[in-house]
Amino acid sequence: MMATTRLDFRHVWGAPLKAFLSHSSKDKIFVNSVATSLGLMQIELDEKTFDFTLNVAAIHDALKRCDLFVYFLSRDSSTSGFVKEELRSALENRGSGLIKRIVVSTLDESSYRDLPNWLQQLNIAQKISSPKLCARRIQALLLELAALDDAGVGLFIGRDADQADLRKAVSVPPKDIPLSIHAVGQYGIGRRTFITNSLKSLFPRLFNTFIEVTISQYDGPEEFYRQLFILNTISSFENTIGAFELYARLDTREKASAICTILQEMADNGEFIIVIDEGGVYDDDGQFQPFLAETMRQLSALGRPALGFVQARMMPAKWKLVNERSYHRYLKPLRDEDMKTILSLTLNEFSIEYTEAQLLQLISHLDGHPYNIRFLLHYVLNYGVQSLIDDPQDLVEWKNRRAADFLNKIVFDSDEVKIMSILSEYHYLDPETLLATVGGSLEQITGAIRRLQDFCCLERREHYLYIPGPLRDGVRRDDRFKQPDSWNQDVALKICELVSEYENEDHVPLAIIGSATLASAKAKNPPAFLARLILPSHLLRIAREHYDEGRRTLCMEFCQKAYAMKDRLPDDAQVEVLRLWGLSAIRAGDTTVYEDVLGKLRGYHTKVARRMVFFLEGFALRLKGQLDLAEDKFIQAWKLARSNQSINRELASLYCKQRRYAEAEAHARAAFETAPTNPFIIDIFAETLLGKAAAGLAIDQRELDEIMKQLEVYGDAPGSSFFLVREAQSRLRKRDYINAIKAATKAIDRTPQLLAPYFLRAEVYLAQADPVRAEKDLQQVDRILTEAGGFSEGDEARAHELGVRIMIERRQFNLAKDKIDLNAFLPRAVKNRLYRQLAKAVAFEPDHASKPLKEWARRWQD
Fold first, then answer.
1. What angle do CA 483, 432, 117 make, to 5 degrees?
2. What residues have CB less than 8 Å from 6, skipping those under 6 apart?
3. pLDDT tens digit string along 540-568?
């Protein structure tokens, strides 16, 4: 059971969910095998009642105990009187809500045309030839239904103005009606609800089913088409692979045409597609990806909306003018009055007592964000209203999306850790794949998923389970969910084996195909039939994972594989492959590969490609210590993308190394606004503010204190010394030399190959007028730089600066002057600062300087 100091949401769940197995007695060998795999606790199957007597009351009683109705379609069952009665009862129970889902599994060549009319309309007949696979599919459906039982907020209030604006936009002639509806806003603000409720109200005869698909960053037309194909087409596994391979050979216009055909077919059936945009709908400039732009062009004859988009990014105004038939609405937080209505109705639904004063206090913590009510509801169900009012910290952390703060309070059991680890690797998984990879009973996995949902650690989208966006980065950085390579390989193998069990004529869900394809790309020896499904986007994602983990050689290997398939990637994705490839080559010291990557990038004519050339050139120059040249490159890249997180961080880092903290601040702050929980970004922001303070420049001390707290949360862990280094810097500024040395020494013990703590400890020693110990740290820096071949985050320039300062402290003025004059690593700003320090020291102690040096110092000061 999951438990925390305060967060311990427990629900009392009823009896386990059950499936009713409707079949002909002549098919009992297959069905009994399915039943045996499922176990008696998960099924209703009474052979004596249903095979020998038509006991209507028994059928009704059994169906009342079931949530899922499974009909085994065959020539025999389609003519069975017993089965017809079961189907009639299932229809009644479905109408009353007792039966939540109906699934049809064909046992022979029978098709959905052999079904009753009401079942034909559902178009859900699927063939699975193995009893074991069939049982697992039923278990997965039961697990999915259990996930649906999670308490949530289903009210839609307070969007009258937004709906009125959309109503006005669609109240035009058909040729002018928006083809795409874009709901833009923060995560959980109600974007999907706005689209579905608005279209139901405005087009009640057109749309009755809303289906969600995802377009992730760097996805192209193939990823989108695969999702639509399986949603719309009942096809065998073999035919599905064939359709995907055929689609890959089409040109852009033909690919868009195939997408339009499916969208129109689904729209004719009352189905509307909502695209969850995870950074893949627009290109770097904010325009539709080319395949989507072509799709919209080909849909222009439609007189109704064709696609909905749930997004965090608004399309720039210049592209809205180009895409005239697109409607964009930014959803703002709800008013307090609307939040009061939603919260009071929700609390009343669960019979939670409260006063008017308590209600107003609770609303003050919700920030007009409907999704925060979900967390509040789970908390109040367990601890009461007043408990949350007395200590709202948990809700504050949740609503501010401080993932690490939130996750650190939770103790996960082994099943929950496995589920979170697997979802962190694969992002979206169906229940069947989770059951196959996690292991354990259906009851165990159901309980684990429900508890994770209680903590808002898991959400459900269509047939998928996933970790919500605000928590993904926190989960990825949480060591509890980092598994050894052998474990990850075993998971990948299990997923591949899961698909291998299907026969060519079986129907395989998209969720399983998607996860199995990614697993096969990760696996050392993937099955040949799965290798046919691997897309370059899968390889790009794996390359990024290897880069983040510091596995440069593997990153370059997967980048090379992905780029070999570049024609199947959007242009921005191709540039991203080259970015990772180039960065890995620079860090690995592979000049040949680096130059080859630059050559490839120069072959593109997009702004993002030009920016990336400057960025990689600047990155390489910075690591070589040529900071003046690096600065020029980074500034050129920054002019092409002023809000880019990586470029702002690099510029801030470069300026900090030169002690140009005032210039560093704007870039550090811009990067922090983009990624406030990234420890690298927090670290450079803290270094900037501490440097400004040490230089006597004005800062907001409260802001610095808060940044240091955040750095302690996100950057103080085994194997990480972000916080310790900045703590040493802070102590040095306060002249607390003893504790500054302690913090720097602890950082060195924790990360002995990191240069920053050596530099800082040497700074402390110089502040104590102890050049001997400072030089020992400089020797350690030189050793690490030599072992790294000169390629290190702590560049040679800083080491040379430290060497000059040690010479000055030892009164070796002539040597110091020569070192400054002849040094090619030192940037102009650093050279000028060292010249000033030397001139000042010579003036203060002229006896240690030659006559020419004294004259130079006098001229310099004048």
1. 160
2. 383, 391, 394, 409
3. 999 988 888 788 999 999 999 999 999 99
DSSP assignment string, 570-610: -HHHHHHHHHHHHHHHHHHT-HHHHHHHHHHHTT--SHHHH
User: CA-CA distance, 464 to 455, in Å (whole number)?
Assistant: 18
Contacts 24+ apart (CB under 8 A), 294-298: 294/252, 294/253, 294/255, 294/256, 295/256, 295/259, 295/260, 295/263, 296/179, 296/180, 296/323, 296/325, 296/326, 297/256, 298/253, 298/256, 298/257, 298/260
- Read off the pLDDT of residues 136-173 as tens digits, 9 standing for 90 and up: 778 777 777 776 655 445 555 657 888 899 999 999 99
Query: 279: which DSSP letter?
Result: B
Residues in the chain, how many? 862
Q: Give the pLDDT of residue 825.
A: 65
Average of pLDDT values for 463-485? 79
- How far apart CA 90 and CA 92 sit, in angstroms, is 5
Q: How far is CA 206 from CA 121, 127, 146, 167, 234, in A?
A: 16, 30, 30, 15, 23
**What tens digit of pLDDT does each residue of 697-744 get?**
999 999 999 999 888 877 776 667 889 999 999 999 999 999 999 999
At 65, list the tokens: 């105990």
CA proximity to 834, closest of 796, 862, 792, 798: 798
**Through-space distance between the first and last CA atoms of the chain, rounded to whole angstroms:** 74
Strands of the sheet containing 326-330, edge to edge, are: 209-216, 271-278, 307-311, 180-184, 326-330
pLDDT of 771 above 80: yes
- Token couple for 202: 């405005």
pTM passes above 0.85? no
CA torsion 273-275-276-282 (nearest 10°) is -170
3-state DSSP of 284-347: CCCCECHHHHHHHHHCCCCCCCCEEEEECCCCCHHHHHHCCCEEEEECCCCCHHHHHHHHHHHH
How does 775-784 read in b/e, with b if 16+ C-beta sit within 10 Å?
Answer: bebbebbeeb
Residue whose token pair is 């608004």: 314
DSSP code of residue 735: T
Confidence of residue 253 (pLDDT cuts 50, 70, 90): very high
Tokens 């009071």 sit on residue: 344
Give the pair of three-digit tokens for residue 465. 């389970």
Give the 3-state secondary structure of 117-176: HHHHCCCCEEECCCHHHHHHHHHHHHHHHHHHCCCCCCCCCCCHHHHHHHHHHHCCCHHH
Residue 8 has pLDDT above 70, yes or no: no
Distance CA 286, CA 412 (A): 40
CA atoms of 131 and 33, how far apart (whole Å): 6
Quote the mean pLDDT of the chain.
83
Residues 757-776, mean pLDDT to the nearest whole number: 94
